[in-house]
Structures are given as structure tokens and as C-alpha cells.
Amino acid sequence: MPVLGLVIVGVFTLFYPATFFSLSQAAVERTAHSDSITRPKVSEDACPLVPIAPVARDGHRGVGFFRKPPGSGRFPAILFIHGGMVERPAETIKEHMLNGANPSRFLAAGYVVVSITYRSRDDDPQSAVSREDSLAAFELVRRLPFVDPKSTVIYGCSGGGDLALEIAASSEPCAIIPEEPASFIFAGIFNAQFPKRGERFVPDDSRPIGDNPRSYYTTEYQKLTRAKIARIHCPILIIQGDQDPRVFPFNNQVFIPELRALGKKVEVITYPGEPHCFNFNGNGPRTPHPAVALKAFHDIDVFCRRYVKTIPRTIAAGLVKYVAVDSP
User: Fold this and answer.
1) Which CA distances in Å does 126 have to 187, 215, 256?
2) 3-state class of 9 per DSSP?
3) Prediction pTM value
4) How many domains are contained in the chain?
5) How confident is the model at residue 29 (pLDDT cuts 50, 70, 90)?
6) For position 127, which CATH number holds?
């Protein structure tokens, strides 16, 4: 690189280190396999998968796993909360942590990454058990000796996005990233009295809400929702595709305007043409355009670095290899 180029990069790194690290990783992921999009595969010897069992207030022991960057000291952390309304097997959470592009990208960037499941609430979407399990996991993560409690972020998709909002209304994350959150659960609209087609609720039972969002947002639910939003004090980044007929309309017509009207620090990034929860894994069947998921990761990383107190440091290149996004 010419001397002038080195000087420019040096100055850029001095004043914008977070952006420089983010752009560097993006370049590696795009060039490691010619023009294909790759993901980091981080050494399990250096960054092993460690189980956790968060204990909720009713004594229930949950299921989750973390991976941390090598070394001592404190790190920022990101807690992943999956979507849906039902508990997932431990093996599914392991797979997400080891082979999901998104968790691996955050680990390689220098975050402690944590992924959990929670007790099912498909009997009643307003059941407190999922929230209590998720809140217990968040508090456990903040107490880990190598995590900076003031640099703990929550990332949840759909039903997990609802749970990220619930945690933010009950505790103190430094930021949350609800990916297309099921905010009609947060608002209380999707509840045990809502019509369902089977014995248990499934996400598609909420479809009527998306068809006419404002009609479901009655005075009763406005009062409930505004009281909960008032308790959220951290910055919020909502990322979303625009293809889901249930969640996207309610968020854009009702929930996001409410956040803004109540003065919350909220940013919204929409990725046109992307399906619901396209970025939670960042690869696989829910991610038809891996390049868009890679961009979403960097958008989130830049957002997080503005609010974490401990800035993540990219882990050593020798501990990471880059593989095609859907490689095992």
C-alpha cells in the first residue's frame, strides 16, 4: 500500500476504530472464497461451547450456551433469543452457536455470544414463563466475570424480539436489537382469548392482526403498551424484512410510531425483499440472500459499538477460518 494510503488508514483507524474493524472483517468474508459470501468458523479449542443453566425466579433451570473470545479481561456480550413461542432442543441451540453465521461473526468480532431457549408459551402467548427464562439468562450473562455488565446487548427475532423488548422494560441492557419483533405480543393483543385453529397457538394465528393492525390496537392495549414502553431506557435498533404479512404491518403502522411518539431512541433498518427473521442465523433456508445478512450484521455491529462501554476487539486471525456460509 502506498505511504499515503497507510497514513489515511492509520488516521481513519485512530478516529473510527470500530468502523475499521467492521469493514476489515467484511472484506475478508467477501474475498476469502472469491466472490462468494463466507462466514467465520472459530476454533472450538480456543473458544469452546460452554453450557449455562439460568435459574428463573420460580426456580426453573433454563438451557443455553456461550462462547467467549480468548483471553482475560472483560468483553461486550450479545444474547440471542430465538423466535416462535415454543422451547427448542439444546441441540438446536448448539447448532445455532457453532454453525450460525451471525453468532460466529459476533464472536470473531470480539463479543461473548450467548444463545438460549425458554419455556413454551403456545398455550397462552401472554404467559410469563418465556419472559422469566429470558430475563434470568440476561442477568446471568451480566454476572459472568468476563462480561462487562454495561456492555450487554440483546438480539431477538420475532417472538424473541418481543422478549428483548420485555427484558428492556424490566432490566438494563445497553442496547437491544429486535429483528422484526412480534410486538403485538408485547402489546398484549395476542393472548389466550385470541382465536386459534388448533389446541395450541401457532404464529399464523396472529395473521388477522397484520390484516388490520390499527383496529386491534384498542384503548386498553394502548395504555398497556405505552406503560411498558415508558420503562425502556436503552437504544433500540429494529431490523426487518418486508415480506411477513403478520408482523411487518403492525410494527410499521402501530409499534414503531408509538416508540417514536414516546421519545424512545429507536432506529429502523428495512431490507426490502427479505423474509421474516432472515438474519437471526445469517445462513440457511431463512436467509435467501447471504450478502444482505452480512450487511445486516455489520449494520448491527456498528450500532452496538456506539453503546457498549467495552469495545470488542477482533480475535486473532489464526483462530478463524472462513468457509462458505452453509458449510458444516
Assistant:
1) 10, 20, 21
2) helix
3) 0.90
4) 1
5) low
6) 3.40.50.1820
